[in-house]
Amino acid sequence: MNTTYIQGIIILCGIYAIAVLGLSLLTGFTGLFSFGHAGFMAIGAYASAFLTMKMGIPFAISVVLSALIAGLISLALGKVTLNLKGDYFIIATLGFGESVRLILDNIQIFGGARGWPGITPFTTIPYVLIFLTISIYATVSIIRSRHGRNFVAIREEEMASQIIGIDVFKYKMLALFISAVLAGLAGALLAHYVGFLNPKMFQMIKSTELTIIVIFGGLGSITGSVVGAVVLTALPEVLRSLNEWRYVFYGAAVILIMIGRPKGLMGGQELTFKAIKRFFAKISKVFKKEVKS
Question: pLDDT at residue 283 above 80?
Answer without folding.
Answer: no
